[in-house]
Amino acid sequence: MNITEMITINTVEFNLNLKTQKEVLEKITDILFKDNRIINKEETLKGYIDRESECTTGIGFGLAIPHCKVESVIEPTIVCLKLNEAVDWNSLDEEPVNIIVGLAIPKKYEGTLHLEILGRLASNLMEDDFKYSLFNINDKNKLVAFLQENLSKEEE
After folding, report:
1. Calpha distance 60→104 (Å, rounded)
2. Residue 29 sits in a domain of what CATH number?
3. In DSSP terms, which residues pair with 60 in a beta bridge?
4. Half-sphere exposure at residue 149, Cβ-oriented, CA atoms within 13 angstroms
5. Three-state SS for 84?
6. How many domains does the chain have?
7. Residue 1 CB: number of other CB atoms within 10 A?
8. Which domain does 96 fall in, by range?
9. What is d(CA 102, CA 16) in angstroms, rounded to the nearest whole number?
10. pTM exceeds cut of 0.85
11. Tens digit of each residue's pLDDT (9 = 90 or more) over 12-70
């Protein structure tokens, strides 16, 4: 699977006024449904909620990487949201989150593609320059290109 196909202008949203983690997960699910990446909103939302109940995906620094692996996901997808105000995410550093990079992975890729993408995200998120850019790029096309380029580097 080519990373550039996983994130598009349709899966990035800025300036969102969401108040809770659940609202954020519902928004991710709505985006996935509208972009024909999932066939069942309820199953997908439950996948995100179940994953959060296992262990937080709030990794610190105002960032969360919610992810789910469910049958209702048609295409592996990355969703990126920027919130106007941070929401509580029960993050590892106990700080609220305002940048969300969500993953939706078909169940058939469990243990393979989802771990590869999470690994790429995690290694990039350890880099200060990557985090700085993620927070400061305010153009959807530029953010999509930035994520595609940086998450594809290890494919070469």
Report:
1. 21
2. 3.40.930.10
3. 63
4. 9
5. strand
6. 1
7. 15
8. 3-155
9. 15
10. yes
11. 999 999 999 999 999 999 999 999 999 999 999 999 999 999 999 999 999 999 999 99
